[in-house]
Here is the input.
Amino acid sequence: MLAAVFDVIRESGYDGLSVESVAERSHVHKTTIYRRWGSISEVLVDAVLEHAERAIPLERTDDVRADLTAMGRSVAENLENPVAGALAAAVLGSPGDGELRAVADRFWEIRLLEAGEIIADARAVSDPGTSIEPRQIIEMIVGPIWFRVMILGQPVDDAYIETLVDNAMSGL
Here is the structure.
């Protein structure tokens, strides 16, 4: 059913997304969607989170630098994919208000919390007294990647990601 969300957005854009369009596309009754999710925005959050977990895994190993570098590469690869990049721009990069903004806010809240756990693990080992928030470190890596790909339309290479990670880790 969550795949149907992407199909509808790909074909009709966000404006074409509704419980009815997802129900029709996934061959389920709309009451099934309402019972499980309650609204189309909740379906969208789950669909985007599921996609992000597959496309941008947040792996935690004993090497925080490698974990953050892998996260940065995954973010760049996802944004450079035409379909995923368009979805990210429409849903997650929305500066507007209303339901779409709420979806983006919920997505970022969850993903930044999950990614921040990588930093918290590293900090517990290195310097628990550091004042910079884990979220800020993640933003220092992901923000420039978003800007470079989504705003400037430029590719991101490994050297760029490694520089971002090194700069962010100096805050640890």
Notes: The chain has a mean pLDDT of 83.
